[in-house]
Design goal:
By secondary structure, the chain is mainly beta. It has one helix spanning 2-18; strands at residues 23-33, 49-59, 66-82, 85-103, 110-127, 140-159, 165-177, 182-195. Helix content is 9%, strand content 62%. The two termini are 35 Å apart.
Length: 197
Amino acid sequence: MKKVLIVMFLMAFAAPSFALTGVSFGIKGGLLTDYDQPSFSAPGEDNTNMALGGLTVKFTSLPMVNVIVSGEYAWKTNSFTSYDETIDLKTHDLLFSASAVYPFELPFATPYLGGGLATHSIGFDLDYPASWALADEAEAFSTTETRMGYHLIAGFDVGLPTLPLKLNAEYRLNWIDMPEETAKVNSFALGLLFSLP
């Protein structure tokens, strides 16, 4: 699966050498939902909805399909109280994805459907009170692991009159290969795309 993902990334970044037009850059924001699963969350941690932000490069001049390459970061911090002290636990997911989508050209919008692969760098940061730390220890603990994933994607672009900008809405159904199970999460994002001439 890793080899397939590498090939998809290479295809995406090589696309401009075949077509200098049809390249868009964008930003997005939204939610990553259903992250409150045993593979991702500690008992009592509420990760139902995590904030999501990211950058996108979209290639639309390839034959038949468009290619979307994205880098996204999702995060949420939960605070707990123990012995009158506050403990902060932050869960985060840094993901890079490559997707191939089929566009449906309509007069008012361009819907698309497709799928792709991703890498998820899933991490946990624990900040605990200074009074709990030993003299030679830090007051925080962090751990990160990288997992492979795949997804289905659906979205649409709407052009803005007289401007090289497009509004974008996107949904992904993501599967992440965790040690104990294949976890399933959803992502919803709204964004703005700037199209090169």
